[in-house]
Amino acid sequence: MSMFLDTAKIQVKAGNGGDGMVAFRREKYVPNGGPWGGDGGRGGNVVFVVDEGLRTLMDFRYNRHFKAQSGEKGMTKGMHGRGAEDLIVRVPQGTTVRDAETGKVLTDLVENGQEFIVARGGRGGRGNIRFATPKNPAPEISENGEPGQERELLLELKVLADVGLVGFPSVGKSTLLSVITAAKPKIGAYHFTTIVPNLGMVRTHSGESFAVADLPGLIEGASQGVGLGTQFLRHIERTRVILHVIDMSASEGRDPYEDYLAINKELESYNLRLMERPQIIVANKMDMPDSAENLKVFKEKLAANYDEFAELPQIFPISSLTKQGLATLLDATAELLDKTPEFLLYDESEMEEEAYYGFDEEAPAFEISRDDDATWVLSGEKLEKLFNMTNFDRDEAVMKFARQLRGMGVDEALRARGAKDGDLVRIGKFEFEFVD
């Protein structure tokens, strides 16, 4: 079984904030000591950090749940709880992070050491020292810590390569990679010898260097899921130049020009923007008997079917076996890379806006629905956050929560919907009676 993994679905949970404390200063010579309960500590964030030593997402195959520590609770003497350390999760270069629910791209991690907070820890709850007022100098109120952010993420690895080798199976991509780099891909005289992308570094005679990826062989219908193509087409997206390798010997009975059209059609079907990348046609296996004649016919067909105003792609005849024409091909590739900018992988519609961890002012503070058992159900981000941060062990905190609901207009909204004295109202798993 292949040990290459380039997609993973994981769940992350940031740490909850620590609960605030209710405490009072009681010392022999300190009259009217007052409140002395400290705040809770901040919960830990979940942070992705790029590690250039990782090559796959295999670590996420067996460990799919990542949970940061919660902050410490507040303490007496007004002492704050300790904030939790962030949970560091290492990912390989080229990892794209999406929100599984919305499908939006959160970040594209490509630089070694790059960091991104994927889930933010909750703030610590306030202790009763924070609620002291002239009217209430000894409050028995404290807050629970804010819940940490929880979300499901989709990770996609797209290999970091400047140049991608594409073409039908057995056209010689792996052999070409093995002779121009120090990579040692598996090479065999059968289709789909390469079942995972292979990466290698090229250094030309003039001193230029670039990364080349040998991508598993595409076949007709790859963009619709045929063969291995759909699984690894994503890796072409990061490349800036495509080397389109074609078997000019037609050793498998296929027409080289038809091969060229078929592969381009798959690239276009998968992602129209792949056709923006400049291509160099690599006419391989020129050491075979019929290759020269086939190349001549290929050039005629290409010229006949190209727009007269369009620039024909460069064609380099080579033989990976005899190393004929390789130096010229690599110099031309390096020259084209110098002129080709990086391509934007995602447009604004695919990217999630910078995360805002406060309340959305435009979102309704609460929503009212009714369950099958006739219970009124209250929901909404702001309301649920207030509920979670309320310490229901303290009567004063419960009364404060009731006042907050009234201030939000919950009582009036329930009356308008037909709620009557004694009706049950539910928030999460907590139920109470509506008092008119």
UniProtKB/TrEMBL annotation:
PROSITE patterns, per database record = G_OBG (PS51710), GTP1_OBG (PS00905), OBG (PS51883), OCT (PS51881)
One GO MF term attached to the UniProt entry: GTPase activity
Query: The organism sits in which domain of life?
Result: Bacteria
Return the InterPro entries for the record: G_OBG, GTP-bd, GTP-bd_Obg/CgtA, GTP-bd_prot_GTP1/OBG_C_sf, GTP1-OBG_CS, GTP1_OBG_dom, GTP1_OBG_dom_sf, OBG_GTPase
> Is the keyword Nucleotide-binding assigned to this protein?
yes
Residue ranges annotated for the Obg domain, each copy included = 2-160
Entry EC number(s)? 3.6.5.-
What keywords are annotated for this sequence in UniProt? Cytoplasm, GTP-binding, Hydrolase, Magnesium, Metal-binding, Nucleotide-binding
UniProt-annotated location(s): Cytoplasm
Q: Does the keyword Phosphoprotein apply?
A: no
Biological process terms from the Gene Ontology for this record are: ribosome biogenesis
> Where is Mg(2+) annotated to bind?
S174, T194
Q: Where is the OCT domain?
A: 358-436
Query: What main location does UniProt list?
Result: cytoplasm
Q: What GO terms fall under cellular component here?
A: cytoplasm
| Binding residues annotated for GTP, in chain numbering | 167-174, 192-196, 214-217, 284-287, 319-321
Q: Which cofactor does it need?
A: Mg(2+)
Q: Which family does it belong to?
A: Belongs to the TRAFAC class OBG-HflX-like GTPase superfamily. OBG GTPase family.
Among PANTHER family, the record links this protein to: DEVELOPMENTALLY REGULATED GTP-BINDING PROTEIN-RELATED (PTHR11702), MITOCHONDRIAL RIBOSOME-ASSOCIATED GTPASE 2 (PTHR11702:SF31)
Free-text function comment from the UniProt entry: An essential GTPase which binds GTP, GDP and possibly (p)ppGpp with moderate affinity, with high nucleotide exchange rates and a fairly low GTP hydrolysis rate. Plays a role in control of the cell cycle, stress response, ribosome biogenesis and in those bacteria that undergo differentiation, in morphogenesis control.
Subunit record text: Monomer.
What is the protein's given name?
GTPase Obg
Its taxonomic path starts at: Bacteria, Bacillati, Bacillota, Bacilli, Lactobacillales
